[in-house]
Design brief:
The protein is mainly α. It has one domain. Helices cover about 60% and strands about 0% of the residues. The protein has 7 helices and no strands. Helix 4 crosses helix 5 and helix 4 packs parallel to helix 7. It is globular.
Length: about 140
């Protein structure tokens, strides 16, 4: 017999990403960009125009100060990664999807869309995958 269990009502007191979480996401995103085969210039644009010097530091594990905008971008990228892992049982197919042209994006690849550098472009890919995961 199926028994309905009441949902927890606890909510976090704050909705922010801690510096420790942001640093962990920065390391994960650098590794993710390697899997996605994004060049450094595209990767820096996806991160909102990060300078080459700062991105080089990220690549060796020193992310430094991460502001709210950058933390939000990192969270969106981790969400995109999570949704791709849900959609594709083979991780390599999900990694490759990022660079494949897609009709939904006017024949552009998700990497091209995200490479525009604005937050809206990242959110566009995230929302598209979110809707696909629900279907």
């Amino acid at each position: 017999m199926v028994q309905n269990i009441a949902r927890a009502t606890a909510l976090p007191k704050t909705f922010h990403i801690t510096s420790v979480e942001a640093e962990a996401m920065a390391r994960a995103v650098v590794n993710l960009f390697k899997k996605w085969k994004l060049g450094d210039s595209v990767a820096r644009e996806v991160l909102g125009g990060l300078s080459a010097e700062i991105y080089e530091r990220w690549k060796v594990g020193s992310s430094g100060q991460i502001d709210r905008d950058l933390a939000t971008r990192l969270a969106l990228l981790m969400g995109i990664h999570k949704r791709l892992r849900l959609l594709f049982s083979n991780p390599e197919r999900g990694y490759a999807w990022i660079n494949r042209p897609n009709e939904v994006f006017g024949g552009r690849s998700p990497a091209e869309i995200m490479g525009r550098g604005d937050m809206f472009s990242l959110a566009t890919v995230h929302v598209y995958l979110d809707a696909d995961c629900e279907n």
